[in-house]
Design goal:
Helices cover 0% and strands 46% of the residues. It is mainly β and 267 residues long. The chain folds into three domains: 87 residues, Immunoglobulin-like (Sandwich); 70 residues; 67 residues. The strands form seven sheets. Strands 3, 6, 7, 10, 11 and 12 form a six-stranded mixed β-sheet that branches. It has a four-stranded mixed β-sheet with strand order 1-18-15-16, with no helix packed on it. The protein has a three-stranded antiparallel β-sheet with strand order 4-9-8, with no helix packed on it. The chain is globular and about 70 Å long.
Length: 267
């Protein structure tokens, strides 16, 4: 019979806000528009696993110079070892931790006035892990987190150090990994977030613009590839650099409405 010791600190962070939810009371004390300023692209809220990364951005129309200030829960942000761009149009936090959960918005000013972005929520949750031992064989690990997470599973069998046992990718909200152990005895398992893959949001069938959005790490270069079926992929599109936390790909869809497979490939 296998003896499995799991040294995992696991808990669930309640989701207080829906992604992209508007919190009108937060910005009530700040001007919504002024002068010739306007917001062309609002920030988009995100859910992310502890240890991941988030970039919030907005696009503003108006006369330069433009001055940006990001806020969290009615307090202005300043740059620190994890956060940069607090006075720029892109706020980047890498890595995030649970203390970063909250409501975010930006105030932009110029000589003509000020404009405040729509508040959005950022929810940072610790990884939730389930363990189901299989006597004499090993154990199943079930890893609950955000789509696009890649987890590193580590094992300790000598009371001193952990070694990488394998990886699991979260493609639908939960990833599974089978830890095989037929020797029995002491065994500790732990799971860490290794990195995040780009997350794709395909266009709606009724959206005539056929725009595909991809969210991920800043400054990575991506190409979009589409397919009518998984074995046969079209040539990838032109490379685009992620400078705002997300990229728009203009997809040229054929008349066949069944085309709904997309992936990001390296440049």
């Amino acid at each position: 019979m296998i003896t499995t010791s799991c040294k995992l600190s696991v808990w669930w962070l309640a989701l207080a806000f829906a992604v992209g939810a508007s919190v009108s009371s937060v910005s009530a004390a700040f001007p919504k528009a002024g002068g010739s300023l306007g917001i062309a692209e609002e920030p988009i809220g995100r859910n992310v696993t502890d240890g991941g990364h988030v970039a919030l951005s907005l696009s503003v129309t108006g006369a330069a110079p433009l001055f940006y200030q990001w806020w969290k829960n009615n307090s202005p942000l300043t740059n620190n070892p994890r956060a940069s761009g607090t006075t720029n149009f892109v706020l980047n936090i890498d890595p995030v931790n649970t203390s970063d959960s909250g409501t975010y918005f930006a105030i932009v000013t110029n000589g003509g006035g000020a404009v405040t972005s729509t508040p959005v929520s950022m929810v940072v949750s610790q990884l939730v892990i389930g363990l189901t031992p299989v006597p004499g064989t090993g154990a199943w690990l079930y890893l609950y987190g955000q789509v696009g997470d890649v987890y590193r599973v580590e094992v300790n069998v000598n009371f001193t150090s952990y070694v990488t046992n394998g990886y699991a990718t979260n493609i639908n909200g939960v990833a599974s990994f089978f830890d095989r152990d037929t020797g029995g005895g002491f065994r500790q398992l732990r799971v860490r977030l290794d990195h995040m893959l780009p997350v794709l949001y395909p266009p709606d069938r009724n959206d005539s613009t056929h725009v595909v959005r991809a969210y991920g790490k800043l400054n990575q270069v991506w190409r979009l590839q589409g397919a009518l079926n998984l074995p046969s992929w079209d040539p990838p599109g032109a490379p685009q650099t992620n400078t705002t936390g997300w990229v728009k790909f203009q997809e040229s869809l054929p008349n066949n409405p069944a085309r709904r497979f997309y992936r990001i490939v390296p440049p």
